[in-house]
Amino acid sequence: MIPAAFDYIRAHSADEAFAQLQKHGADARVLAGGQSLIPAMRFRLARPSVLVDVNGIGDFDYIRMNNGTLCIGAIARDVAVERASWSGDRRWSLLHDASRVVADPVVRQTGTVVGSLCHNDPAGDWTAVALATRASVVVRGKSGSRTVPIDEFLVDSYTTAVSEGEIALEARLPVPDDRSAGSYQKIERKVGDFATAAAAVQLSLNADGTIRTAGVALSAAGPCAVRVEEAERLLVGQKPTADVIRAAAAAAAKKSAPQADLRGSIPYKKNLAGVLVARGLRQALGRLGVTI
Amino acid sequence: MKVTVTVNGTVYERDVQPRTLLAYFLREDCGLTGTHVGCDTSSCGCCVVVLDGERAVKSCNMFAVQADGHQILTVEGLANGATLHPLQQGFWDQHGLQCGFCTPGMLLTSYALLKHNPNPSEADIREGLSGNLCRCTGYQNIVKAVQQAAGQMHEPVSA
Amino acid sequence: MSTQATDRHAIGVAMKRKEDPRFIQGKGHYIDDLAFPGMLYLALVRSPYPHAEIKNIDIADAMKVPGVKAVITGKDLDAAGLGWLPTFHGFDKQMVLAIGKVLFQYQEVAAVFAESREAAADGAEAVQVDYAPLPVVADPFTSKTDKVLLRPDREQKTNHIFHWEVGDKDATARALASSPRRIKERLWFQRCHPAPLEPCGCVAYFDTMGRLQFHVTSQAPHVYRTALALVTGIPEDKIHVISPDLGGGFGNKVPIYPGYVCAIVGALKIGRPVKWIETRTENLTSTGFARDYHMDVEIGATEDGRVTALHVATTADHGAFDAAADPSKYPAGIFGIVTGSYAFPVAHAEVDAYFTNKAPGGIAYRCSFRVTEASYAIERGMDILADELGMDAAELRSKNFVKKEQFPYPSALGFTYDSGDYQKTLNLALEKIGYKQLLEEQAEKRARGELMGIGISTFTEVVGAGPSKHFDILGIKMFDSAEIRIHPTGAGIVRTGTKSQGQGHETTWAQIVAEELGLDPQTIMVEEGDTDTAPYGLGTYASRSTPTAGAAIAMAARRIREKARKIAAHLLEVGEADVEWKDYKFQVKGVPSKTVTMKDVAFAAYTNMAQNEPGLEATFYYDPPNMTYPNGTYVAVVDVDRDTGEVKVRRFLAVDDCGTIINPLVVEGQIHGGLTEGFAIAFMQEVQYDAEGNNLNTNFTDYLLPTSLETPHWETDKTVTPSPHHPIGAKGVGESPNVGSPAAFVNAVIDALSPLGVRHIDMPITRDKVWRAIQEAEQSKK
Fold this sequence. Notes:
The complex is a heterotrimer of chains A (292), B (159) and C (782).
Chain A: E1 7-10, H1 14-24, E2 28-31, H2 37-42, E3 50-53, E4 63-65, E5 69-73, H3 78-83, H4 93-99, H5 113-119, H6 126-132, E6 136-141, E7 144-149, H7 150-153, E8 154-156, E9 159-160, E10 167-174, E11 180-187, E12 197-205, E13 211-219, E14 226-227, H8 229-235, H9 242-255, H10 266-287
Parallel strand pairs in A: 1-3, 2-3
Antiparallel strand pairs in A: 4-5, 5-10, 6-7, 6-10, 8-9, 11-12, 12-13, 13-14
Helix pairs in contact in A: 8-9, 9-10
Chain B: E1 2-7, E2 10-15, H1 22-29, E3 48-51, E4 55-58, E5 71-73, H2 86-93, H3 103-116, H4 122-128, H5 140-153
Helix pairs in contact in B: 2-5
Chain C: H1 20-24, E1 40-46, E2 52-58, H2 60-64, E3 68-73, H3 74-79, E4 84-86, E5 93-95, E6 101-102, E7 108-114, H4 117-126, E8 128-133, H5 140-144, E9 160-167, H6 169-177, E10 181-192, E11 201-206, E12 212-216, H7 221-232, E13 239-242, H8 258-270, E14 274-277, H9 280-286, E15 289-301, E16 307-317, E17 346-354, E18 361-362, H10 371-389, H11 393-400, E19 409-410, E20 416-417, H12 422-433, H13 435-447, E21 451-460, E22 472-473, E23 476-477, E24 480-486, E25 492-496, H14 505-517, E26 524-527, H15 545-572, E27 579-582, E28 585-588, E29 591-596, H16 598-607, E30 617-622, E31 631-640, E32 647-657, H17 664-683, E33 715-718, H18 736-753, H19 767-781
Parallel strand pairs in C: 1-14, 12-13, 15-18, 16-17, 25-26, 32-33
Antiparallel strand pairs in C: 1-7, 2-6, 2-8, 3-7, 4-5, 9-17, 10-15, 11-12, 11-14, 15-16, 19-20, 21-31, 22-23, 24-25, 24-30, 27-28, 28-29, 31-32
């Protein structure tokens, strides 16, 4: 499968990349990991006339903690999260879990977290993680850079708040407190498949063992990954029990609005949403020393 | 566009279209046909090469122009003259190949895997190779091959 | 002469493969590695419609694309008498490029020849085709009504392709009617695709002597040569077919595809080499699919579980053309093996095949010519019967096995099974898997509501096509051949009519020669695939190579031994009658110290042959006296997750009996690979078309191949019951794992779900299906 012809520009700085995107508007696409873009181009479903390659911008390649915020640069690779020294810490268990099931182990070495958020596939992994962790994305536009909370960033399938001529620079996640843990639960038919269903859970506990904050999000459950606000509401302030988990899981199954496809029927996928939220909650709690 | 890519230590200067995939650049512009193309969706891994010594990359999912100024390791670069790389020896000794089409990709993915995890468990290997498909072997002997290589490459130094 | 191999110079040795060095260094020679000066690239334009009239094809824009040299359509080919190609089964033909209408989505419509891959792709995109859609026939049951006639080109104006049957219809019906116990079940073996990792392709050119040099991914190069001669009119000596290293075949590289014919026509018309390499999407959507058999299985039994009769009625979906590559007398392949390992007193099997708006094919994916379908039908059927009778699945099988003393066994459907000791194989398997303990564990788990299953498959399959009396492809009988030449220094070369796609012939054939002649297998070169040099053969598929070519090699080697004996007598200075072949040497009878080796004789054959014919070579064309019957017992142990429908294969044990084993390493590798394919078929593979005829699984994101993470660990073992009629007692084994395993997996899952009252689930057994079966079962209990 051969892509349609295009012009290639290698950007050497953020300014240069931005200038090229502004210049070419809708005709241009950013080439970062390219692990979703290039296959689309090979099928000629995507036909940009200009590709702006940002892989040479060293300034884009970082993952760092900055004043209570985890900052993931535009070309930080999926695998960098998996291999980060801090990702073994239970606070980051949701990210670590997800980093091990994105795409496949080779694609992960090139695919990027920010790129995945910008691609916004309905069954993507990082979007659900971002929702559960209350992430935000820094976008550079004509009038400068703005920080977009993830709830507003994800607009529709394959559509985000990044408009024509703009570029996403960074994903930001608040650093969870000590008494936090998460879990990513994904059912896929085989490695490399998109999720049949997936759930991202991030919890923090009060000193008395009640739930202080809760982030629950689903992937492959609608046009975009989606937060289950009702589940979060049911969890916050509660002591974790089997009933509470059951209620949160039921809320997730209710909220899930998947498409029927080769991966499964609607009832099956909705059922999975509930099952995976329950499993995610149990695993996150288990990591905090609480067994339900 | 002119690109300069170092493949297995040799510098190749070629003129390519931006849309030329790295896999075809290696096969046709550099004459290194060991890297194979098996699918359209970067699912099979037959095209895997190693970029800049460390990163396993599906070369059907990268444009040759992106490799300008970079180093690529392909299957042809694994052996040291007549001496096979321990991975190659492992695949041979353990019957880790039948038709041989997935083998170059398996070798290069394993190469990158062992760089980051010199002592992988069977589970680590199965996970690490799960981006590479094989139709002939059922993977079991491939796992043994990588285990043999890992053992050989990290033999404990006797006192 | 002896038909049993004794120990053990080369046969039975787990030697490392001789072909590996080039593959592990990336120096294989696959079709896409070939390039010739001035070579053009071919890209095919394909139909988005499953059934439509072609109103017009406009190639003007395509011809304007820089680099495009020519575009041809079905009309152009038809005018040259090449519009249609006979299918291998011989009773149908298929369009090369669509003529008048298209009959399946992705069917070939036009061929674009260009200077580069890119230009060919751009040119193909620029061809404009006007289609007028026609009503779609998307399944064989709708097709049967003949409401929409798909093939007006055929003499019989019906979608019904053929009715085939074997056995005693009336006696079977009577026996079933009077059987105290009976089961009947509709089993669908879903459409799947062999998907070798290397897609199909070719490079064609006419050389300066006017010969067609045709490099092509072919499992049967000689058949291609003869077929091309018949179809194109080019004299057969002017056609040279070369099959290079093949990246897997599994039956996918047996048919002659439209792309091949277009490449040849392009090379002829334009006068330049033409390369055609299909994309994965093209491979999955247009090349030979496998299976798609809807089977109604009926088994009758006595109260205590003795089977009385078997009836199987199949509705077969052949797609748009009958391109099932079957031997000509077997339109439903060797489906007659459906009585399996059991002594059915009467049986009747029938198949009705229909056209549909889908890709053509049917015979592929390690099927041994429909033996996979037959084996699935009987092994599932026996389990359903066991469930109905409340009998243990192993016990029911045991009770009905063909017994060791009954071999050679004439089955109710006309086969003479050569050898087997089914009970021994089953016993070994049950002992190794710890059957008793597993049953105890299962009982405990069931009491707690946990779903654990044990599935058994005790299959007998039939391979080695085949005896000339019964088997031919396009009239060419299915013998095979070997030519062996030993050089002065004791090295040699063997050429056969088969063509390995990873089965290890470069090693195993050398082992046979080495064993028969006491030579070093490392210095016996093996060559296959070049029709100018290889003796005529029918190729490699349906596990036929070892039964036919393997036999030919042994027989040719024995001819060499006879010639060599004369020279040995001369060297030993005795009469011929006083020389015997013993311990891999020629020895004077009764004088163990007076010996000469084959190596000594080889040298003498060229330097000191006295009055004997110089040289040391022989050819043998082997017409097998019978098929061979590999068999085995497979056991699967699974655990099912109620909440997600996930099935975990906890253990899988394969005990195979393929007679004499040439190379244990190679055999084990074949078993691992075949089991992985069976696993994929059982749990995740299907080529689905929706009701409008759209193909839903067009690439590897939707047509699923398991990775190293999903694939279970395989345990293997063996029993050895040699084939009495094969020169080295070998039966072949490549397809057994795909033949025997799907039923083992399905039986295990159904066993796990049986406490809930679930009786059958069609493959692929997806999580969704399992979950829904559990839900429905629990609802109906309320």
